[in-house]
Amino acid sequence: MYLIIMLFLLAGFQLSAQDAPRVEEMHARKWQYMVEKAKLSSQEAARVHTIFMEYEQASWRLMEQSKNTFKRFKDAKQNNKTLNYREMNDQFVNMDLQKAHLFKNYYQKLQKILSDETLFNYLNAERFFRKELIKDWRNGQPALDPNNRPQR
Question: 53-56 long-range contacts, Cβ below 8 Å, gap at least 24?
């Protein structure tokens, strides 16, 4: 699932320095979605926001690394250079492990400040956010564009 999301984000969000406002906008949209869907109180939201942003920024940095790795191997292939598939596979597995480590730390920090039920709702909201991103992407809509959201 992480690979699908990564490929989606690589295709849809060619991140660079000039795209920083788009990344910040995506973080803001995700945060708004998470608070609403998880029904965080204002006190909970205030306590979680810093942890959320730390995790999001670390995840995006890792995504940028993945993008650069993918691009390097894609360029080598297009230039008919011999590819070291073992190295490429190892790098992608290591990035997945780093992503899992980030998520575990994120989870452990959240456990300290949210009740088990609220944490479950929060993490579930995060999963649904990803599903909505993919659904929007497949339907050719801007990612979670609030103007294109059907009423539920």
Answer: 53/27, 54/106, 55/102, 55/103, 55/105, 55/106, 56/27, 56/30
> Would you say how long the chain is, in residues?
152
Percent of the chain surpassing pLDDT 90: 45
CA distances in angstroms from 112 to 71, 97, 109, 146, listed in the order given? 39, 23, 5, 32
DSSP letter string, 2-61:
HHHHHHHHHHH----GGGHHHHHHHHHHHHHHHHHHHT--HHHHHHHHHHHHHHHHHHHH
Rounded Cα distance between 76 and 71, Å, is: 8
Separation CA 64–CA 52 (nearest Å): 18
Residues 32-76: tens digit of each pLDDT:
999 999 999 999 999 999 999 999 999 999 988 888 888 888 888
Q: Sort 38 into a burial class: Cβ within 10 Å, 0-12 / 13-18 / 19+.
A: buried
Q: What angle do CA 108, 49, 7 make, to 5 degrees?
A: 75
